[in-house]
Amino acid sequence: MVDDSRAPPWGASLVLVLATAMAGAMGGIVTRSDKEPWYSSLEKSSLTPPDWAFGIVWPGLFSLMALSALMVLWRTGSTSAASRALGIYFAMLMVNVGWSLFFFGLKQVPLSLGVLIALWLLILAMMGEFACISKPAAWLQLPYLVWVTFAGYLNLYIWSANPTG
Q1: What are the distances in angstroms from CA 138 to CA 3, 54, 91, 154?
Q2: pLDDT at position 1, please?
Q3: CB of 103 within 8 A of CB of 154?
Q4: Cα 30 from chain centroid?
Q5: Is the peptide bond before 59 cis (omega within 30 degrees of 0)?
Q6: Which of 17, 94, 120, 144 is the most exposed place for a label (fewest CB within 10 A)?
Q7: Is residue 137 within 8 Å of 69, Cβ to Cβ?
Q8: Looking at residue 163, what is its pLDDT?
Q9: What pTM value is reported for the model?
Q10: Nearest one of 44, 76, 159, 65 to 112, comparing CA atoms
């Protein structure tokens, strides 16, 4: 049973927000430092958004990720009560960074698609765990799931259109 009268766990909340921000920053650093000229030379789908769009979408998604994880943490009142849901959340953050590393850092397009599939499955698992605690927290992950699905299409397109990519 959830006790809504407890004070939010502020220390764990800070760690959660900082870990989320760090994952976003690490992915961004890998992307910016290893993107050019390789990425520009790839054949991409006509549906590929302009580069500036990623700078808007990803911070918004990471904000929703952190907000929903905080909702889960605050609803349960402790990290131990939310350990399964938050364990999946932190695994998802690591795999998210892993995709940037494999795609942009190592330029391993097929491998990065496998990482993206794992990320997609982790998002689904996380949404399921979050829903057991807070349905709104789970629904806040839907834009992320949609974006990662779209990223999967873009990743697959690059792989198929660039035999050496």
Answers
A1: 19, 23, 16, 25
A2: 47
A3: no
A4: 15
A5: no
A6: 94
A7: yes
A8: 81
A9: 0.90
A10: 159
Give burial (CB, 10 Å; 0-12/13-18/19+) of 91.
middle
> What is the distance, to the nearest Å, from the Cα of residue 66 to the centroid of all Cα atoms in its chain?
10
Tokens of 129: 């765990």
What are all long-range contacts of 11-14, with beta carbons under 8 Å and residues at least 24 apart? 12/73, 12/78, 12/79, 13/70, 13/73, 13/74
SS (H, E, C) the chain: CCCCCCCCCHHHHHHHHHHHHHHHHHHHHHHHHHCCCHHHHCCCCCCCCCHHHHHHHHHHHHHHHHHHHHHHHHHHCCCCCCHHHHHHHHHHHHHHHHHHHHHHHCCCHHHHHHHHHHHHHHHHHHHHHHHHHCHHHHHCCHHHHHHHHHHHHHHHHHHHHCCCC
Residue corresponding to tokens 């430092």: 33
pLDDT (tens place) for every residue of the chain, 165 residues total: 455 556 678 989 999 999 999 999 998 888 887 677 899 899 999 999 998 898 899 999 999 999 999 999 999 999 999 999 999 999 999 999 999 999 999 999 999 999 999 999 999 999 999 999 999 999 999 999 999 999 999 999 999 999 865
Question: Which among 40, 155, 24 has a CA at the least distance from the CA of 102?
Answer: 155
